[in-house]
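Table S5 (text form). Sequence records supplied for joint modeling of the two-component complex.
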Amino acid sequence: MPLPLLEMTGISKSFGGTPVLQNVDFTAWAGEVHALVGENGAGKSTLMKILNGVYPRDTGTIRIAGEDVQLRSPHEAHTAGISMIFQEHTLAGHLTVAQNIFLGMEPKRAPGIIDNAKMNRRAQEVLDAHGFRLPASAEVQRLTRAEKQMVEIARALSSASRVIVMDEPTAMLSHRESEELFRIIGGLTERGLAVVYISHRMEELERIAHRITILRNGQRVYTGEYGSVDRAGIIRHMVGRDIHELFPKLNPPAGEVVLEVRGLGDGKRYRNISFQLHRGEVLGLGGLVGAGRTEVARGIFGLEPPVQGEILLNGSPVRFASPKEAVAAGLGMLTEDRKTTGIFPDLSVIHNISIAALDRVVTGPKLKLSDELAQCRELIRSLDIRMRSENQTIFRLSGGNQQKAIFARWLFAGSSVLLLDEPTQGVDLGARAEIYNLIKRIADRGAAVLMVSSDLPELIGMSHRIGVMRNGELAAILQADATGQEEIMRYAALEHVP
Amino acid sequence: MKASATREWLKKFLPYASLLVLIVFLSIASPYFATAGNISSVIRQTSVITIMAMGMTVVIASSGIDLSVGSMIGFTGVLGALLIARHEPVFVALLGAIAGGALCGLINGVAIAALRIPPFIATLGTLGVYRGVTLMITGGIPVANLTRDFGVLATGTLFGWLPVPLLFVVFTALLIHFVLDHTKLGRYSYAIGSNAEAARCSGIQLAKYTVFIYVLNGALTGMAGMIEAARLVTGQPTAGDGYELRVIAAVVIGGGSLNGGRGTVLGTIVGALIMALLSNGCNLLGISPFLQQVIIGCVIVAAVTFDEFQRRRVG
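The corresponding structure-token record, covering 813 residues in total, follows.
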């Protein structure tokens, strides 16, 4: 019997007395895609960081192709043939694609002197061999997120990798780019590499994973062939309970039009966008990444004011030159990237909630801190935002709880129109269900919701209607209960729909 | 989790613990340290820096920096002295200096917010501008021969024991504490410093509040400039040279972070006191002033290292 390529046995790790991993076993065979799933905090990242030499393990052994390895640093892990592709890009923006691919292992002409020509040539070979249509000489900061990810993968491939760990690799990719990635992964496994694939997206896992390991609370609860357990089973293993319905049943919208846009365009990335948004309605906005969905939401919110068309709020024309004006008019926006444009990491949860509507708790120059505290506490309780203490900085909360706090921010502000951009990105499954319930509650209270999402089941399950964007135009508006993933993809990806 | 909580606690209380250790050590090491005379002199020496550091706390909380405050001390001190020389009452001269400082702050704020120049560069520029203008106004000659009663701002006492500059420090501390914890301006300062883009997305007018923050800092620096002039009983065009570094150091030692989002009035006071006591202690113990600079420099580096180390562990 052949040896597994990667064999982690009895791995335990605790931080400051709190066990994060307990006696976890994990093996990966050459040529397999091994899905690693679990809620946030289940220990996936810690396990992979141990594999990558970022954290030392407390106990346990790691073998690569049967040989014991120590992996005391990322460099040692790299030498042992382990590459990791992180969620957040770790590229040097000012350098070229080739320079990034060969960072730290540049081909040398003489000691200390880099052979640029050779480096560019070899980088281009790697890119071409895997069908990445990228020039090796391009500056990385000018690339799209998907292209950056290709560079990361190319970097992993250029070294003698045997095990490649991918952490939520499609989080930032469009549908087409994801397809591209799956094709690349197929190529990797054919060449006998093992791919450890961390993701929450089961549609993807079903397509590419051969085996699955499920972690819960730092323990391995399941390992087996991917097909040996169905979706419900996976969820049950992950959360330790059943989630019967991920999506709550939406009530029909209450009626009158709250927000209407007519012929909206920014002169560059979107044009001629027209739709109506009703009280109590969730309008999904789908399409490929780069189709202009986020830009439309940002345009309405005054972040990058549109130059064409008009916006009507409760029937009167409005034009927001800044988010300040949009917020004052009753709009709220949950931005795509929680870390860079959502949370205030140094501020407490309470201060994060009240920040957009301090005028509600101000008399003269003075903030009424007790009013603020009371109202925020009520929101924290009703949204079930879990934290250790009220003074805890929001930075230390899980992604799902951070996201709930940002919802609380706009509830505190009493927003009547909510623009949600990828509301469940980076949120674990349990919290996702809570966020869906929250969106339903917000709609039931009479707010109008525009929800940009790349997650097709989410679009279909959580919208009344779905607008599909393609190349900066609104290709169709579909009834959510009468459409399916295929129809949405057809409008999103094809030039002409038959 | 437990370890991180311990670290957070340590981070919070390290400045206070350091101050306490320093006081205990100096009390034992020098019999003269704990005398009323010495303490009063420490307070007088440190009040100008402490008042300036209060304004800088707000600036740094908003992830800004103001390098021009030292030059503002010279400018506003000369302005106040010129008003005194025209036989204006001390009160009017003080208001004039505050207004002059506010104007400097306004220029800084507008340069940063409207012209979108990074604060470090904008105020590096105005550092030169304000000093140069001051030297041009005075021709490089100190404004002297002022009435003695002007000195009361720095050397006077209330009830025969309470140093007047201490009153200014207490007033400023209460004001800034109120601003930071109980007003929109304070909350927005932390928010802008913690994540400027998120602040914009939350409907905060970055430009407006940035200008407010620098005007507030300028006004307080103007007040400090007047006290400095009173201490010298002269409008020295070169006064305050290099103070910006001591002020920034006080804020950072007191737990403010140059990455923004943090800083408290109490912390800054402790930071200013640590700086003052290090200097006072060195004098009392007969340590050479050359070595003093080395010691204070090391303390600043240690404080920032600790802050960065914390960030990295958390991040």
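Note: Strands of chain B lie at 157-158, 162-163.
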